[in-house]
Amino acid sequence: MSIVINLDVMLAKRKMQSKELAEAVGITLANLSILKTGKAKAIRFSTLNAICEALDCQPADLLEFVSDETDQ
Amino acid sequence: MNWNKLLIVYSKYVLILTRFVLLGALVFVVVSGDRYMESHMLPVQLDLSGSTSADWSDQIKVRSGYEDSVVNGRVHLRNQSLRVEMSDSVFTGGKVQLLIMIVWGILLTHFLLGIVKSSATNSFFSAKNLWRVRFIGFSLIVYSFIEYGFEKYRAYLIDRFFESDFIEATNFSVNILPSLFDSKFVIGVIVLIVAQAFDHGLKLEREQELTV
User: How far apart are CA B172 and CA A14, in angstroms?
Assistant: First the structure.
């Protein structure tokens, strides 16, 4: 099972660049890339809060649960 | 004053000096051969209390037939010790053990130095340090077995060349039962346990790095 972060989708919807979002959230581009590529082990509420504020969306718009069966 | 930094700097220089001294000792042992080394000396632990004789032959009796194997002896009444010089034909293992000890000491100081240097940076919990700590732990345990082996061998030599039941003239006992579980073995086990903590710390650091 895995939690997928649909950051690319929201960035496209808001027509925002990754660099812009990283600056708005206060994290490095490298850390944002970790989120986008699904390598992140955890995300702080403060970071999630900042992303939602920057993209004007809900956490549910960003986070998606994908079970093993769906993966297959 | 940052005592932590001071301690790290102090430890670093002590270890560098120790490594330098050990390297010098290694060169000396290899180059000097048997000239200055007491490689044919066999230490015999005796209870010399009450004895006033400095003549080693009064303290211990050589088994008949092996007189040629024993060259000389030296009694230190103050230290309560007796050292017997064996002939060239008898391998006492003294030099070999000393070489192993020096090489092991060099490796130990080298790895400790690596750990101390990394403690000043942000890479203390690293795979390299984990490997170093595990190596130190395992090498301590292995070295305690090597020491035990040499002690057993020396006990065998003492039993072979000397009469250990010679107790009529002097009151003495010979230690022929060396302890395997000496401090190096126990410290080695403790270090391996610490290595497990290092491993856990490394996993936590990796998770922390991947926490956004």
Answer: 92
Chain A within 8 Å of B212 (Cβ-Cβ)? yes
Chain B residue with minimum CA distance to A28: B212
Alpha-carbon gap, residue A33 to B148, rounded angstroms = 56
Q: Which of A41, A45, A49 should one mutate to test binding to chain B, selecting the residue with the greatest count of B CBs within 10 A? A: A41
Angle formed by the axes of helices A18-25 and A45-55, to 10°?
130
Of all residues in chain B, the percent with pLDDT exceeding 90 is: 32
Residue B63 to residue B22: CA distance in whole angstroms: 38
Q: What is the value of ipTM here, to two decimals?
A: 0.77
pLDDT in tens, B93-109: 888 888 999 999 999 99
Contact B210 A32 (CB under 8 A): no
- The rounded Cα B61 to chain-centroid distance in angstroms is 29
A36 → chain B, closest CA residue: B212
